[in-house]
Design goal:
Porin; 47% strand; mainly beta
């Protein structure tokens, strides 16, 4: 019943926000500005970075901003498997205290935090049925250090079935009085909350911010496909600490600092060096390398880790774009002398075709390999982006996942007294799935 109510709330909210956004577009600043029908020194219809209404109407854009969006969608699998909620009892895989545990119908089990995403191979689309993935609100002040010191910051709050992916240890969960900000399917988090200072070519951020790893970001508006690439599961999603960015020239930007990957405020020895570089090789080719190396002793652990990613984006022409992502996470557990090494590495490829201003089509292929299990996983997706208006984005997707040895799909259980028994004859190592999401921007 709770899931049905949340689904209904998602539909109603999408409709209401859509009507509000439509009214705003019809009566907004662009009604009098008509940016693509006027002649000015800054023509917004050309490939020029400018504010069309500032160039034509003479308005000045404020540094303060309040933006956001709402994403709701549905995803299903070929087996017709639904979510299964464990109310009490004991499950051989997920253990006791199972009143919050969910066997997600599209694959895998309960994993509310980033350190357990291996149990949810489809990550943000593991849920079956209608879900509110992300209600996202961003408030802050942008900075511009070109004329001297400037100060600002950003606070991003998110709620939905995806929010557990950006929860940080020491802030949203394991805080001593709350296990987590949320329960069951729905969670909340401060995806980002940082202070920012800029001076000339320097920029400094202090607080909680997105970790710069991989080609897929948490925000659904920043990636092409509805579902996340597998590489997102094993690299840090956020980091707490401080880092500085230096713009060497128009082609090269470097950054470095001290952070706590997927943690906040847990100082001790939970820290790492975060560094990287962004190189605009040419007008068409961009290369971004990010590196994280450090130690984690959170809750008694003693782990050394090394994380890095290399992302290249190549704009083939005005219509075609190719993205390549190589990511690796390596961990050494110093308390486990028998088998200290674990981790995952893999690649993600995306080819996107921009058909026109409203339609784009994409194909994705990925491969990941686990150190400990020695298992390989392959993922293929076909998707589209339809933008009927500036405030609405529709993302349909068809996806296929294949494991070599692991069997996380079509998990079905039945209760036997105080235990839940998995029917192993039904479990599969591959699955065809698909769905669609709608994003309303405001």
């Amino acid at each position: 019943m709770r899931k049905f109510i949340m689904g209904c709330l998602g539909v109603v909210t999408v409709i209401l926000v859509a009507q509000f956004a439509q009214a705003e577009v019809k009566a907004g600043v662009f009604q009098d500005c008509s940016p693509c029908e006027e002649i000015s020194e800054c023509n917004p219809c050309d490939e020029v970075s400018c504010d069309p209404c500032e160039a034509i109407c003479g308005t000045k854009k404020s540094k303060w901003f309040v933006t956001g969006y709402l994403e709701a969608g549905i995803f299903a699998n070929e087996y017709g498997n639904k979510n299964f909620y464990l109310h009490g009892g004991h499950h051989p895989v997920f253990g006791s205290h199972s009143h919050n545990h969910v066997l997600y119908g599209n694959g895998g089990g309960y994993s509310p935090h980033p350190d357990a995403t291996s149990l949810k191979p489809l990550q943000n689309v593991s849920n079956t049925g209608l879900q509110v993935n992300q209600l996202y609100v961003s408030v802050g002040k942008s900075v511009d250090g070109s004329h001297g010191w400037d100060f600002g910051g950003t606070v991003d709050f998110t709620f939905g079935t995806d929010a557990s992916m950006v929860q940080a240890a020491g802030l949203e969960y394991n805080t001593g009085h709350l296990d987590s900000w949320g329960t069951g399917d729905y969670y909340s988090a401060f995806a980002q909350a940082y202070f920012e200072a800029a001076y000339k070519k320097w920029n400094v951020k202090v607080g909680k911010f997105y970790a710069p790893f991989g080609s897929n970001g948490y925000q659904s508006t920043s990636r092409f496909f509805y579902s996340l690439a597998d590489t997102f599961a094993f690299v840090p999603a956020t980091a707490g600490g401080a880092y500085a960015t230096y713009t060497v020239n128009d082609e090269l930007t470097v950054y470095g600092g001290w952070v706590q990957p997927d943690q906040f405020g847990e100082t001790s020895h939970n820290n790492a060096f975060l560094g990287g570089a962004i190189w605009q090789v040419s007008k068409r080719l961009n290369v971004h390398y990010a590196l994280g190396i450090g130690k984690n002793d959170y809750q008694g652990a003693d782990t050394d880790y090394f994380v890095n990613s290399l992302v290249t984006t190549y704009q083939i022409n005005k219509k075609w774009k190719y993205i390549f992502d190589w990511s690796l996470a390596n961990y050494t557990d110093n308390t486990n002398k028998a088998d200290p090494h674990s981790g995952t590495y893999g690649i993600n490829n995306e080819l996107i075709y921009q058909y026109n201003s409203k339609w784009a089509f994409g194909a994705r292929a990925g491969w990941t390999h686990g150190y400990s299990s020695g298992d390989n996983k392959y993922t293929f997706s076909l998707g589209a982006n339809w933008t009927p208006t500036k405030w609405l984005l529709i993302k349909p997707e068809l996806r296929y996942d294949k494991y070599e040895d692991a069997t996380p799909f079509n998990i079905r259980v039945k209760r036997d007294g105080e235990k839940y028994i998995t029917d192993k004859s039904l479990v599969k190592n591959d699955q065809l799935s698909g769905g669609i999401s709608a994003i309303v921007k405001f």
